[in-house]
Specification:
Layout: H1 2-16, E1 23-30, E2 41-45, H2 56-62, E3 71-74, H3 85-93, E4 100-103, H4 107-110, E5 111-112, E6 125-126, H5 129-137, E7 141-143, E8 147-153, E9 156-162, H6 173-176, E10 185-189, E11 206-209, E12 238-242, E13 245-249, E14 268-275
Parallel strand pairs: 1-14, 2-3, 3-4, 4-7, 9-10, 10-11, 11-13
Antiparallel strand pairs: 2-14, 5-6, 8-9, 12-13
Helix pairs in contact: 3-5
Amino acid sequence: MLGGIAALWLGARAQVRPSGTAVGRVTVPLAGLPTALDGLAIQVVADLHVRSHRSPGLRALDELAGLQPDFLFACGDLVDDADATPLVARALAAIEPRYGAYAVWGNHDLMAPPKVTDPGWIGVRAQPLNFMREAFQAHGITLLDNARVEHQINGEVLAIAGVGDATERRDDAKQALCGADDDVFTLVLTHNPDATPRLGASRVDLVVCGHTHGGQIVPVFMPPVTTSTRLLLRRPAGLVHVDGRLVFITRGIGTVGIPLRINAPAEAPVLTLVRVGG
């Protein structure tokens, strides 16, 4: 019995380590993708849960340095301690995206676990968002807090909207997509896939998010222990459809609670958008 427990522990620990599993490529077929945007590459990072310079999530980012994708989407839960924000911002900037780096808040970015020095009655701590936002901006990373931007790429307009975290009820799709044009290809990044059903009638071609950790602990032949979402997802990560919209959910890099991953390896995928059909 002890041997079985030891094997389970070692196997889970192996899947926590980012080496060999943190970087992967996912092809996303999109019928509405303009020809000028065919092949667009988006580096997705989520759920780092960095507390200090020793955090595994921060070390995982080192593997992504210099990849130079077209865009970087940081989909929340980047820090569990605001003091680590400059470290994360510097590591994200080192990825060197060509057109832009964008981030959204996750529930842990907004409300962090208590520090060991905090009084016992403190359950969670409100994070200093202005300090965190300035740290990201100083490294060229734009926080899209229910906001939208546009890029001109190869003569084609691309819209990117960031929707706030649904866990803390900070998602405001109406504000994020204000001024949206139904003729413009639109990407949405958010933290929790629960924001997807509330996106309204505006054009959204792809939603990119994290939060589920891919279940983090997925027993063999059983569903995940938890995905922390209200949605009935067919799978805890990857490409899924939610209310008729295509959604990519990354398993992310870090962990919450037990520092283990079982059958849900850490990832920081590059999404390649590919035009299909007419």
